[in-house]
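User: Predict the structure for this protein chain, please.
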Amino acid sequence: MSAGATYSTARIATGPVLFISGQTPADPDGSTPSDVEEQTRLVLAKIQDVLVEHGCGWGDVVKVTYYLRDIADLDVVRTVIRDVVPEPRPAATLAQVSAFVDPSFAVEVDAVADLGNRP
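Assistant: Here is the predicted structure, written as structure tokens:
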């Protein structure tokens, strides 16, 4: 993997496995930040909250899927990933989508965590 990569080529899960549904950039009040960086940080924070709720953290995440409405936002999203997600980073898939359920969304992320490493 190259320096600064935002993903690992492969990760092994021993299970049990936690599947986190796609998290959107909607705030609890229903508003959505207009900035892609803020949206990405909010989405990753929501995933972090689910991880903590299940007694784990980013180090347990083995797979993520990033959905972007505009692939031109990829550099911004990668910068946020490098800031938030520690190494070893999860294996990842990136997909550009034509639309989200809310047209103000620019990014959505789902995740899979390996709970087998918990004490």
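The chain has one domain: 17-117.
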